[in-house]
Amino acid sequence: MPGRLPLPSDFDAQLQLTISPPPASQAPVNVLLLLHGLGDSAVAFTHLAKQLALPETACIVLQGPTPLPFDLGGFHWGDDIVFDQTTGQMDFDTGFVKASKTLSAVTRILIEECKYQSQEILVFGFGQGGMAALAMMTSGTDELGGIISIGGPLPSSSTSMSDSTMKNRTPVLVLGGSSQTLITTNALTKLRGAFQFVEYKKWPNKVGDGMPRSRDEMLPIMFFFSHRLRSRRGVPEGSIEIG
User: Fold this and answer.
1) DSSP-derived pairing of the beta strands 17-20 and 57-62
2) How many C-beta neighbours within 10 Å does residue 46 have?
3) Is residue 63 a contact partner of residue 73, using CB atoms and an 8 Å limit?
């Protein structure tokens, strides 16, 4: 039996989120969690969720649990706020214990209360949001349907596994620019040490790790969705999935 559409009342009242149902009154076979970047909020990604209009997929946009200090506006996923003394920029990688617990609780509710299978839950994260998603998976969360991280490497607090059988089996797609990117060779090595299935897409002629701005940049993401999202359209009522 497919899962039901999640409701805001299913989750902790302190958690700020928006829920978008699948298009055209389709049944929600999958759930996509969307996590914004450092200093952003749920508003922009709520618009993105509606633009994606993924078939048979409910989208839940989660807001970082902690507001930025000094009236900077926006929210973050880290355990702390650290400023680089050289550049004055905020550090992305400041620990994700709190975020991991929050995201794990969300996935647990989707599985236990809304009756989704873990492989029917995917996560899309940008920057620090992608790091939070990867940190959750290395903190003991069961295998999910997939993780997409744009410009978000595995946090330094997460560990790699020398034994391939101990690696998380959740498929990961990580994307980054061709220069001034956080998705370095060392970052990919560490990511592949923690996850068994990692696909990397380097956007050519792109400076930095911004969100996709063209059809060509969006194509690998949609290709990943097409392979990882499940569908029940055309499946007779009462059928049993095998495998």
Assistant:
1) antiparallel
2) 20
3) no
pLDDT in tens, 168-206: 999 999 999 999 999 999 999 999 999 999 999 999 999
Name the β-bridge partners of 103.
none
CB atoms within 10 A of CB 52: 18
Q: Give the residue from 92, 207, 98, 108 showing the smallest Cα distance to 153.
A: 92
Q: Indicate the SS3 state at residue 240.
A: coil
The DSSP symbol for 92 reads: S
Q: Based on C-alpha coordinates, what's the Rg of the chain?
A: 17
Per residue in 85-130, pLDDT (tens digit) is 676 676 778 889 999 999 999 999 999 999 999 999 999 999 999 9
Residue 100 phi/psi, 5-degree rounding, is -60, -40
| Residues 123 and 32 sit within 8 Å (Cβ to Cβ) | yes
**pTM confidence score:** 0.91
**Cβ neighbours of residue 165 closer than 8 Å, sequence gap 6 or more:** none
Instruction: Name residue 72's beta-bridge partners.
Output: none
Length of the chain equals 243
Q: Are 96 and 78 in contact (CB under 8 A)?
A: yes
Parallel, antiparallel or unpaired: strands 66-67 and 75-76: antiparallel
Question: Where is average pLDDT lowest: 63-72, 163-172, 229-238?
Answer: 229-238
Burial class for 82, CB neighbours closer than 10 Å (0-12, 13-18, 19+) = middle
